[in-house]
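Posting this for the archive.
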Amino acid sequence: MWQTLFQDGALNLGFFQSSLLISWLVVALLLFMNLRKPLDSLFLGIYPLACLTVVCALLTHTPPRLSQRDDWGVLSHIALSVTAYSIFTRAAGQALL
């Protein structure tokens, strides 16, 4: 995952690379929340989705959309957005199951 997201000293923000980052964070949040309260039914939906994003990120070869590491305003906005998407995805999965 690290080699897919970071290329040439910059963050690659292509479509599948961003979805890989979001799915990784969703799984990490789910594992963390599972320590407090059992959420076993969510694993049935989240793990296959995370697996699908990993496969798509590895098999597709899209041109990289690089964001330099020294642009802290953009990178902090991206980090907050990815975290928000991950929390909303987990909440939507929990609402469905």
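The chain has four helices and three strands. The mean pLDDT is 81.
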